[in-house]
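Chapter summary example.
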Amino acid sequence: MKKTLQMILLIAAGAAAGACLHECQSRGQLQPPEAQGYTVIDTVRYYDTIPCYLPVPKQEVSLGTRITFLPVFIPGDSSNAAQDIPQICNNDVQNIPDSVAVEIPITQKEYEGAEYHAWVSGYEPRLDSIFVFPRRDLVTIREPPIKPKRWGIGVFAGYGVTPHGLQPCAGISVNYNLWNF
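The structure predicted for these 181 residues follows.
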């Protein structure tokens, strides 16, 4: 009977120890990574929208001229333009040119702001608006909490067992800390 009781106690102690160890292992899986001793780095990327309406040019540079042939405007009402052409052409066909050479100045304007730099070139160039999308990264580093050290070496003073019996004593000890405060 005594051996059976010892065997039951041994099995119960083993089951209790196994349940305790299993819970200790599975509890670590439910904790966040920083609580498990890992450094966690979160990066959130977002884009700002910075509108700039009707920016003012910083400088203007002439890039030269370009000669372009443009059609000649025939005077008269636009609805009757088809009727006016034969009359003009019948009167003086030789003196009406079909196109004229025009010299067009080409310029380049530079626009600059805190978040943009733009160049626009052509005939009377103008930048109406510009939208800039700068990328911003917000990085959060979460360090694991510092675990208190349990073992240590310390100085003690108190009552202890000495070669002469129980007496007040002082010394150096190796200790295990149960609570830190």
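To summarize the output: Helices lie at 2-30, 81-91.
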